[in-house]
């Protein structure tokens, strides 16, 4: 016999009444929520794999020989590398918008499956391109389509499923998966169901309760399940009461209403700043960067590997033990200033030694100052992983309302891919022409974004998704009216009743 969920009690405006929040049961921090998060994050390994292998691959003599780099001038080589790398970011931008309909209509799981199929096909194109630039470009673009989808769906999926007090840690699994970087995304189809919040929005209430019970490891009649289900439905009811239906045209208009537009602008700016840290300039062109510091050839590749390991360890420590303890604001501010100081040193070092890509070793060949510059790059990477690495993904996955979460996330993540495209497209030219100015440029932006966080970013640590209105204001209303618009809370849990039967 199936479990039947009776109708919620509603107030005179037809809005679901939320019971008083019960004590948080320890059962919700169970193995199932961690396992589900780990499975959905397998798709993000595709992104990490691409980021990790490409920079070293472009630096290999075999790549230069196969694609004719040896017969080009330095400017043409920079352009060719920029084109190969940036086709991926261009594809990712379009991937977000092409998948938006499928994500809303068919759910998060379906879109992830579709993306993994595209990524495998794109990988085969790149593997067997055999020096064909058009095939390589096509493979890069299609892999970008897949990763654009994954970058939208995965953080949203986790934020919609995670308990508030460990939401930052679980969204951090995305970044850890990016760092590990192995192509195993196809395993995503085993053991994953769609999120309770998407199921509620799709009108599948019984499926939503079933999914919520599975990841919280609690029975349907438990007071915490009753409260959380009502909380989700309450927000959906209030948004519908204020702004009406849910057509895409209506949702786009709703984006610019008070309570929504401020969140969208914060998300877009945060993703823009994330890329202005310059991390992808280092990630994709790390052998060239370390060559500027006096570490060329196989040594540059070795240092690049150590750089990747440092990032992985730092990301793991921050996401598992720190983000849900110290919050979002402080890491962003401190990490930004630390990154600024590290990049400032590297810029000064290159200006003083006059080292550049075509003159490796002159004035910078394994000097003590050069070793310190490498340490500064590592310090910058650790500071980034403790701040702007995964915190923007976490923040942008939790601040948007249920009705607008996918659309708002699409806008924010589109900015992420546009900015990443701009950075990776410009970096070869910047390293060739600006040299030390490249690092000064990104370092200055890290200083600017730290100040911006201090004045503009509120803390969201531990806040349930459905209570973000208390921070940012209700859609169509104002933050100071948030409590006045909240329906009265009941003092007992009889507002929602669940009949349980035996399967």
Fold topology:
Blueprint: E1 4-5, H1 31-41, H2 44-59, H3 61-66, H4 74-106, H5 108-127, H6 133-161, H7 167-180, H8 196-201, H9 205-216, H10 223-243, H11 248-254, H12 261-276, H13 279-284, H14 286-292, H15 297-326, H16 329-353, H17 368-385, H18 391-398, H19 405-433, H20 436-456, H21 469-472, H22 482-485, E2 498-499
Antiparallel strand pairs: 1-2
Helix pairs in contact: 1-6, 1-7, 2-7, 4-5, 4-6, 4-19, 5-6, 6-7, 6-18, 6-19, 7-15, 7-18, 12-18, 12-19, 14-15, 15-17, 16-17, 16-20
Question: What order do the helices and strands follow?
Answer: EHHHHHHHHHHHHHHHHHHHHHHE
Task: Report the average pLDDT across residues.
Answer: 81
Q: Helical proportion?
A: 55-70%
Provide the spatial order of strands within the biggest beta sheet: 1-2
Alpha plus pi helix count = 22
How far the N terminus sits from the C terminus, by CA atoms, comes to 5 Å
The counted number of beta strands is 2
Report the portion of residues in β strands.
Answer: under 5%
- Secondary-structure-based class equals mainly alpha
Q: pLDDT below 50 for ≥5 consecutive residues: which ranges?
A: 182-191, 360-364, 478-503
Largest sheet: 2 strands, antiparallel
Oligomer class: single chain
The radius of gyration over CA amounts to 24 Å
Taken from the alpha-carbon principal axes, the silhouette is: globular
């Amino acid at each position: 016999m199936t479990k039947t969920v009776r109708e919620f009690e509603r107030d005179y405006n037809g809005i679901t009444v939320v019971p008083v929040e019960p004590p948080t049961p320890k059962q919700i921090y169970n193995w199932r929520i961690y396992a589900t998060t780990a499975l959905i994050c397998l798709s993000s390994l595709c992104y990490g794999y691409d980021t990790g292998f490409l920079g070293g691959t472009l630096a290999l003599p075999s790549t230069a020989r196969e694609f004719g780099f040896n017969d080009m001038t330095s400017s043409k080589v920079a352009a060719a590398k920029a084109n190969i790398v940036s086709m991926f970011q261009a594809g990712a931008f379009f991937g977000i918008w092409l998948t938006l309909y499928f994500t809303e209509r068919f759910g998060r799981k379906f879109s992830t499956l579709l993306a993994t199929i595209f990524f495998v096909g794109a990988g085969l194109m790149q593997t067997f391109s055999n020096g064909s630039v058009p095939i390589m470009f096509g493979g890069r673009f299609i892999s970008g389509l897949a990763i654009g989808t994954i970058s939208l769906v995965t953080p949203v999926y986790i934020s919609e499923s995670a308990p508030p007090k460990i939401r930052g840690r679980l969204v951090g699994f995305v970044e850890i998966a990016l760092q590990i970087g192995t192509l195993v995304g196809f395993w995503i189809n085993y053991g994953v169901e769609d999120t309770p919040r998407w199921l509620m929005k799709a009108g599948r209430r019984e499926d939503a309760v079933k999914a919520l019970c599975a990841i919280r490891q609690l029975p349907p009649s438990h007071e915490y399940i009753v409260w959380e289900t009502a909380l989700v439905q309450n927000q959906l009811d209030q948004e519908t009461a204020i702004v009406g239906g849910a057509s895409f045209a209506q949702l786009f208009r709703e984006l610019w209403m008070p309570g929504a537009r401020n969140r969208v602008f914060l998300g877009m700016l945060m993703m823009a700043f994330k890329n202005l840290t310059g991390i992808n300039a280092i990630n994709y062109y790390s052998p060239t960067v370390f060559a500027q510091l006096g570490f060329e050839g196989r040594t540059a590749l070795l240092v690049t590997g150590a750089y990747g390991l440092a990032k992985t360890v730092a990301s793991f420590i921050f996401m598992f033990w720190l983000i849900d303890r110290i919050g979002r604001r402080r890491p962003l501010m401190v990490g930004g200033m630390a990154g600024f100081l590290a990049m400032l040193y590297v810029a000064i070092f290159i200006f003083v030694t006059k080292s550049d890509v075509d003159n490796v070793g002159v004035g910078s060949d394994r000097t003590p100052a050069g070793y310190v510059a490498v340490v500064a790059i590592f310090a910058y990477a650790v500071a980034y992983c403790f701040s702007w690495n995964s915190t923007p993904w976490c923040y942008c996955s939790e601040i948007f309302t249920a009705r607008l979460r996918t659309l708002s996330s699409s806008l924010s993540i589109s900015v992420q891919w546009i900015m990443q495209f701009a950075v990776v497209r410009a970096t070869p030219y910047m390293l060739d022409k600006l040299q030390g100015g490249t690092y000064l440029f990104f370092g200055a932006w890290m200083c600017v974004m730290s100040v911006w966080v201090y004045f503009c970013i509120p803390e969201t640590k531990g806040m349930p998704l459905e209570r973000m209105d208390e921070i940012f204001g209700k859609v169509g209303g104002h933050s100071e009216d948030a409590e006045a618009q909240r329906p009265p809370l009941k003092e007992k849990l009889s507002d929602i009743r669940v009949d349980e039967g035996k399967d």
